[in-house]
Amino acid sequence: MEPNSNFTEDQLLLSSAQLQEQLEQQKALASVIVRIRESLNLETIFQTTVTQVRQLLNADRVAVFQFDHEQNWEGEFVSEDVALGWDSAMAVKVYDHCFGEQFASSYQQGRVQAVADIYKAGLSDCHVAILSNFQVQANLVVPLSRQKELWGLLCIHQCSEARDWKESEIEFIRQIADHLVVAIQQAKHLHEVQLQAAKLAQAAQRDQVIAQIVDKIRSPLDIETIFKTTTQEIRQLLQSDRVAIFSFNPDWSGNFVAESFVEGWTPLVGVEPAIADTYLQQTQGGRYVNNQTFTVNDIYQAGLADCHVTLLEQFQAKAFASAPILQGDQLWGIIAAYQNASPRQWQSYEVESLTKIGTQIGVALRHYKLLAHAQYQAEQQKTLTSVITRIRESLDLDTIFQTTVTEARQMLQADRVAVFRFDPQKDWEGEFISEDIVPECNSVIAEKVYDYCFGENFAPLYAQGRVNAIADIYQGKFPGCYVQILARFQVRANMVAPLLKKGELWGLLCIHQCTAPRYWQPSEIEFASQIAEQLGVALKQDSYLKQVQMQVVQLAEATEREKAMERQELLAATIDKIRQSLDIKTIFRTTTQAVRELLEVERVAIYRFNPDWSGKFVADSFKDGWKPVAQAQPMIIESFEDTDDDNELPRNETFVPIREGEKLWGLLVAYQNSQPRYWKEEEINLLAQVGVQLGIAIQQAELLEQTKRQTSELTQALQELKQTQTRLIQGEKMAGLGQLLAGVAHEINNPISFIFGNLIHLNEYTQELLKVVKLYRQNSSVLPTVQEQIDKTDLDFLIEDLPKTLESMKVGTERICEIVLSLRNFSRTDEAELKPVDIHEGLDSTLLILGHRLKNNNERPAIEIVKEYATLSLLECYPAQLNQVFMNLLSNSIDALEEKFKTIQQKYLNLSQRCPKIPLTIWISTQAVNHQIVIRIADNGLGIPQEVRSHMFDPFFTTKAPGKGTGLGLSISHQIIVEKHHGQIKCSSKPGEGTEFLIEIPNND
């Protein structure tokens, strides 16, 4: 045991030493990280790092080596910490001509070189020589890579002896190197920022002047004023002879549109015709398209083409500087500064200033275009609003159509705007039903039109809601039939928008330009589409207007974007939680808690509307210290005011709707109870997205519940259908059996009645004959032969036995008549409807039919029947069906008694004992109680267990062996008593004592 104990102790000491070593490494690493964060001076960081690393690793030298990227893998040590007795490697230029071949690739991939002994590691001679110069015996080198570029090396040298480097030491140095790389990147960024700050300071003064010019550009909205102000201010800024703005035409020729020049020079605006610069035309804008400037200090010394020099001479220019004017991504023109009196050396800041002004002019042009477009759109929206208002004011389609075509034609300045309606009874045939036209065009009202190629070429596209815009019907590859129809109506340019009614193509909104081709603008196409959409709303007789919301995406700061991304991730997680469950309470609880944590609010609640628009809170999540609202009484929220500037004011709550499909189900509300809060747009959007997901979850839960309910209903209906089908089959069988019994009874009754009726006469005739025989024997002598025959036939016996035989035949026929009567009473084929009957007759008939089963046989003794009939009035019932119930119950009792006898007898047989007498009894009793007829059928069988009694009235449930029972007898009996007679049937049983069935049937006397 002692060696093992020592071994364990050594392990503990070793583990403790390793933990201590790792702790020291982590302290050193933390110290390096702190110095990196505290200082931006790279030398201080390097020196602190190498000192602490050398002390921690107990190495002879730790140094940072930096490559000179201007040389081929040459560099020097820029920082080191070396133990006493060893030479410094600082400022020593090092060039290993085999470094690039052997190590550069590996270091660039982040690999670490750990050499325990440089003389045994198989290094190249040149590498060993260099390491020997620095007295190195063992070497550990980690690359310092900055953005995939090898910046330098972190070197740990053991000079005194060879050294096996531990994995923990290598990993530690790798982590140190990673943080040094961070420090190197920080230093580079700091240097770049300092350089940029110096440049910004120099440009600040120029920018101030440019800013003043830009302010003057931005102030007016008239583009001519902008051009005039710009050229004048920039000419004064640059002290040039002329500043002009040149605008390109579509063919890359152009004209001067604005200028400012010193008095004495010839103006260029409005004097020169269109200027065609062949170079700009051939290159479609040349360098200006790429946003490049062009500067010429002396047009005669710049090597320009002769045609270019000639053109500049026409402008009286001897030097110029030009910059492009870009309208968005398109080259609009050029702004140029000209020096006419003499050549000029243009400074870079002057060109830069000209470039900035050109950019600002481009922005101004863009704004001017957007303003004009916005004004045009405003007019469109004004017209659209007017049309929508007219549509809302009237439900008469003729009025709506006439108002629409009039407003649309005036807005679009078209020659004709008309509404075309298809005839649903014909194949794409229709007529124009409303129009507004200029006087020069012919009317198309009531014109029948059938385009046999319409269905093939255009109908599918129109059915998808597409708008067809044709600039010139003669320039496109259109079917001849189509062009022929349009030419018939003087159409040259055509724009058609579909009118959809409940998803089907009802008609067309047609805009025609008859006088000339016309290039339809996207805004015009959109306008026509919107008008068509509103007409579709009118066609469907719907009183709602789709609101078009314009969303402007604003650039947020980096931190705000990160927070938005984080919220999106949390939103995704919240939605995932919502989708993980279909239990609505779990969904509510998870959602409110997740949203509250996500928005960092004090409470999030879910409010549900009632049908009368009152409601209550059904779930909430709140911070500690606040009371729940989910258990509060129902409440009515009187109003939710929605204004455009709500988000600009601090509020204590914000809410979004929760919709279950198209139905407003409730609200998702976020509260800040302690103080007002400015709700950000992204917070409201996030809340709205959760509200949408909640609506989907509620809809899914409702659909799941509905599906379960429908499944249950279908299952129940299927079960009932099976039961009904089986009962119908059983009923048909019983009806067939009843008809069979009735037929048999009828067929037997006829001959038996004949026999029974003749027995009376036969008895009378026999008595008369016997009297004659007696008289004959008494009053005359009998002939010997006759006497001999009398003695031979034993006449005295015949005279005595013949009346007995006749009496026996009478009893037999009476018995057969009783059986026939019982069969007829049981079948009751002529009594399918409700009828007052004596139920005792039904019971007795059933017992008579089952008489053969009640008698003793080879397997058991006879079954005793005990009747206790009360005096009852006639019961209005379905006799045949009630007899069927008695038959089922009595048959089951007989089966139970037979099973009892077999069980007890087998028990004694197994014990080899004599079996005692086993009483087998069925009790039948009737009585009238509280306007009800009560019938009890009991037996002294083995009884029925509780688990069987709970299912005994279920269809197809049976405990009998296969082939001996269908499991329908008690089920049908239950249906007859409960559903047909509105009564009750109950079963009570004690195991080993017997079973009793109790039937209660209402009797209205």
Could you outline the blueprint of secondary structure elements for this entry?
Layout: H1 2-38, H2 42-57, E1 61-68, E2 74-82, E3 93-95, H3 99-102, H4 104-108, E4 113-115, H5 125-133, E5 138-146, E6 149-158, H6 167-218, H7 223-238, E7 242-248, E8 254-261, H8 278-283, E9 294-296, H9 306-314, E10 319-327, E11 330-339, H10 348-393, H11 397-412, E12 416-422, E13 429-437, E14 448-450, H12 454-457, H13 459-463, E15 468-470, H14 480-488, E16 493-501, E17 504-513, H15 522-539, H16 558-579, H17 584-599, E18 603-609, E19 615-622, E20 653-660, E21 663-671, H18 681-779, H19 784-793, H20 795-827, E22 835-837, H21 839-849, H22 851-854, E23 864-868, E24 875-877, H23 879-910, E25 921-929, E26 932-939, H24 946-949, H25 969-980, E27 984-990, E28 994-1002
Parallel strand pairs: 23-25
Antiparallel strand pairs: 1-2, 1-6, 2-3, 4-5, 5-6, 7-8, 7-11, 9-10, 10-11, 12-13, 12-17, 13-14, 15-16, 16-17, 18-19, 18-21, 20-21, 22-24, 25-26, 26-28, 27-28
Question: Summarize this, please?
Answer:
By secondary structure, the protein is of the alpha+beta class.
Number of DSSP-assigned strands: 28
Our measurement of the CA-to-CA distance between the termini, rounded to an integer number of angstroms, reads: 104 Å
Spans of 5+ residues with little confidence (pLDDT < 50)?
A: 1-7, 542-554, 631-649
The neighbouring-strand order within the major sheet is: 3-2-1-6-5-4
Work out the radius of gyration: 57 Å
Major sheet description: 6 strands, antiparallel
Which percent bin holds the helix content?
40-55%
Outline: elongated
Mean pLDDT: 78
Q: What's the helix count? A: 25
Strand percent estimate: 15-25%
**Structural class determined from secondary elements:** alpha+beta
